[in-house]
Amino acid sequence: MSKAIVQDDKGGPEEFKWVEWDAGRPGEGDVLIRHTAIGVNFIDTYVRSGAYPMMTFPGVVGMEAAGIVEELGCGVEDLSVGDRVAYVMTEPGAYSEQRVVPAERMVAIPDDITDETAAALMLKGMTAEQLLFRIAPVEQGDIVLVHSAAGGVGQLLVTWAKALGCTVIGITSTPEKADLISSLGADHVIVSSSEDVPARVSAITGGKGCAVVYDGVGKDTFDVSIAVASKFGRVVSFGNASGAVPPVNIAVLAPKCLLLARPQVFPYIADRSDLLRASDRLFDAVRTGAVNADISKIYALSDASEAHTDLEARRTTGQILLQP
């Protein structure tokens, strides 16, 4: 019997309990993983609170992790006991010492990538990969705006977009995080709590606006995203950190002929071939320095409630992990 962070009902971080939890045995096509590092994401808070009804109770949250294969189910031929693997899945359950997972969702961790880096980047890194290469592909010379640029996905978008030759405008709500965003390579940093974002963007771009706006904040920034986009620009709303965007009259897109997307990463990696392509591109970006895991803090798995409290209070930057 191993342990896990279990909650009996939806609610705040206080619902988390560190208890014994039976991971079960691998069935056909499954493997039993012993986790070595577990990623923490904002979506975990939505699942925990019940905002995203993705889990039955009692249940275990968590979408991504890295670990070591301990047992193979029938029919698993591409993995061996002792292999280092990582995964991201739509089904919660990663906040645990052990977990049974489908072998087809496993990605082998290359020898030059640590377990911690893989666990920190599977969801956020693949999200950034899809945003930059498939959902709203960027080209050298594009002006790109990234909301919440000091956050997990935000930092990855800033550094990766710069590596692709874009001019990057990073937005943050506090001056304390502005230096961090500049250090990542952002060409311009705007502190939204004290500056007029559309006015600054207009001054920076000569009134043209941004070719692509990546908005993981949601309700509080959606109108700004529309305002700062260029003619024929693309606005990608991919998160709800401030709450869901209210119903939108699509006529607001017409004056600039804007394209609006509200994607999620999982359909883009549902096919194993797409999953492996995305992970290969992500690991290559780590090797070249275009992407850095930037793990700011590692919490004990038993302290998951503290990790969620810090995350929701915006006291974290970059990536945070849980470690069994």
TrEMBL record:
Keyword Repressor: no
Gene3D superfamilies given in the database record: Medium-chain alcohol dehydrogenases, catalytic domain, NAD(P)-binding Rossmann-like Domain
GO CC term (a single one): cytosol
Pfam family, one: ADH_N
CDD domains with a match to the protein in the record: QOR2
Keyword NADP: yes
Sections of the chain in a coiled coil: none
Domain called Enoyl reductase (ER): residue spans: 11-322
Keywords: NADP, Oxidoreductase
Any GO molecular function: NADPH binding
SUPFAM superfamilies recorded: GroES-like (SSF50129), NAD(P)-binding Rossmann-fold domains (SSF51735)
InterPro entries reported for this sequence: ADH-like_C (IPR013149), ADH-like_N (IPR013154), ER (IPR020843), GroES-like_sf (IPR011032), NAD(P)-bd_dom_sf (IPR036291), QOR-like (IPR047618)
Superkingdom of source: Bacteria
Protein name: Zinc-binding dehydrogenase
Source organism: Algicella marina
